[in-house]
Amino acid sequence: MAANQPTLAMSAELQASRRDATLILTISNPGARNALHPDMYAAAVETLTTAERDNSIRAVVLTGADHFFCAGGNLRRLLDTRSKDKSEQAASLDNLHGWIQAIRDCPKPVIAAVDGAAAGAGFSLALACDLLVAGASAKFLMAYAQVGLTPDGGASWFLSRALPRQLANEMLFEGKPVLAPRLHELGLINRVVPDGTALDAALDWADDLAALSPNALEHIKTLMHEAESNSLAAHFDAEKLHFLESLYHQDAQEGISAFLEKRKASYK
């Protein structure tokens, strides 16, 4: 969520489009800095679930319309929600978290392309992605405490793992914007690019990933998630399982043969 946001426009939607093997999801809410709306959540989960079954999709890029990623939740709507039963907002949070989980569970690489700003739950969405590309002037902030709120969208979970505890606390306590170059130095952002080019850079990166083994990328993504809770001994077993499944998959046959034959691999 972000402070001082405009009234939510009725045209808030999550737009889906394709470029070659990449699915592009665009958060669009004209006039409201692409603030989130509950109607987007179910659409996002459905779209990502469909993409999971579509072998022609090799990567997903999440971005915001008009060179602005996402201002987070809408405070006017939240203020109105206070007059309703808590269960309504609880259901909305469950649906937002379903979107975050769908990004994490998607077997395809998901890249966030951030220009402008990513605030509150918008920042959480970017953190949920596997890779993050940002414009040089892009701002990242968690301003919950400034308006008497606490994080959602997994923000505290992601930041506690991505940053030293003191820095994560500073971002969540103060809610001040942090620029992309600083977060790049800390390892939270993969690539910083000229302003206005984050989407193009993310799409080019997605093209590169599309040329790799989709089976291998899916197993690697799963392993990275399992590593967050596994002991080393348990993870040895997980790596063994995934390695064996990968070795006997057709992608390994093609990849190893292409390497030995000094040609570019072609994965189906």
User: Per CATH, which architecture of the largest domain?
Assistant: Alpha-Beta Complex
Helix share, percent? 40-55%
CATH class categorisation of the largest domain: Alpha Beta
Q: Give the terminus-to-terminus CA distance.
A: 41 Å
Strand content: 15-25%
How many distinct helices?
11
Shape: globular
Model regions low in confidence, pLDDT < 50 over at least 5 residues: 1-9
User: Helix and strand string, N-terminal first?
Assistant: EEHEHHEEHEEHHEHEHHHH
Per CATH, what is the topology of the largest domain? 2-enoyl-CoA Hydratase, Chain A, domain 1
| C-alpha Rg (nearest Å) | 19 Å
Give the number of domains. 2
Overall mean pLDDT stands at 94
CATH homologous superfamily of the largest domain?
A: 2-enoyl-CoA Hydratase, Chain A, domain 1
- Which strands sit side by side, in order, in the main sheet? 1-2-3-4-6-9
Main beta sheet: 6 strands, mixed
Class of secondary structure makeup? alpha/beta
What is the β-strand count?
9
Structure, explained:
With 268 residues, the chain is α/β, with parallel strands linked by helices. It folds into two domains: 13-210, 2-enoyl-CoA Hydratase, Chain A, domain 1 (Alpha-Beta Complex), CATH 3.90.226; 214-260, Lyase 2-enoyl-coa Hydratase, Chain  A, domain 2 (Orthogonal Bundle), CATH 1.10.12. The chain is 48% helix and 15% strand. The chain is built from eleven helices and nine strands. It has helices at 38-53, 75-81, 86-105, 121-128, 155-162, 165-174, 180-185, 198-210, 214-227, 232-247, 250-260; strands at 13-19, 22-28, 59-64, 110-114, 117-119, 131-135, 139-141, 178-179, 191-193. A six-stranded mixed beta sheet has the order 1-2-3-4-6-9, with helices on both faces. The protein has a three-stranded mixed beta sheet with strand order 5-7-8. Strand 2 (22-28), helix 1 and strand 3 form a beta-alpha-beta unit. It is globular and about 65 Å long. The N and C termini lie far apart (41 Å).
